[in-house]
Amino acid sequence: MGVTVLQIFPDESRSGYQETEKLHKRIMHLDAVQSGMFIVDCDSYYTTAQNGAGQHRRLHIVHNSETPATTYAIIDTGTKQVTLSADLLFDFILPRFDHMYQSKKNLKIESKGSRYEIGDFVVKIGTVTMSGHYKGILVEVEYLPCAVPALCWTLMREFMQSFMGSCVNPQAPPYIQNRFHDIHAAQDTVQQYVEKFNEFRDGSTYSGSQANAPNS
């Protein structure tokens, strides 16, 4: 397990197809080899009662095709997140929590697409949909030889900019900055997905493109 960074790629067309095709062509021009497909999905549940601050605690259930035998449960209190890892049997236990957590309709979201390998990098170009409706493009980049973001962020940034252009910020994303000197784990990848999925759900992502990107 290396260091993973997620990047939302601007989609001016709002169709998904044109921009993802550009990304596929650009990564292939770097001699990447396609190595199958991937999918990450997330379903969110809310507590039936509010906490002392008048907020509903959320429970995110995440599945990642990279770890097919694991279910991730992320409890979001509003101020911090706690991530639990369990086997797939956890999904069958969820109905027993319906007195505590309820699922809101049309909130299930997923990122699905092609997986590429290029040297020490793994790149996943995902189309994000929520209840079947297109929401945007999410790219996952993993650098395999390193487990500490501080030691490889500059290299990862340059690689990401080589096919995504200046939409990649020179500074590491806030999630990575907060754990810059920590050892990266599978839970960090899942928590980043939940963070980005929440941005898509809230409509706070920027879908237009004013950034300069590499020529396709």
Ordered list of secondary-structure elements with their pairings:
Layout lengths: L2 E7 L7 H13 L3 E18 L5 E9 L5 E7 L4 E7 L2 H4 L7 E3 L5 E10 L2 E10 L2 E11 L9 H12 L9 H4 L8 H17 L14
Antiparallel strand pairs: 1-9, 2-3, 2-6, 2-7, 3-4, 4-5, 7-8, 8-9
Describe the structure.
The chain is α+β, with helices and mostly antiparallel strands and 216 residues long. The protein has 2 domains: 3-38 and 109-202, 2-Layer Sandwich (TATA-Binding Protein), CATH 3.30.310.180; 40-103, no CATH class. The protein is 23% helix and 38% strand. It is built from 5 helices and 9 strands, in the order βαββββαββββααα. It has helices at residues 17-29, 90-93, 153-164, 174-177, 186-202; strands at residues 3-9, 33-50, 56-64, 70-76, 81-87, 101-103, 109-118, 121-130, 133-143. Strands 1, 2, 3, 4, 5, 6, 7, 8 and 9 form a 9-stranded antiparallel β-sheet that branches. The relative contact order is 0.24. Mean pLDDT is 87; it is low at 206-213.
TL;DR?
The chain has 216 residues and is of the alpha+beta class. The protein has helices at residues 17-29, 90-93, 153-164, 174-177, 186-202, and strands spanning 3-9, 33-50, 56-64, 70-76, 81-87, 101-103, 109-118, 121-130, 133-143.
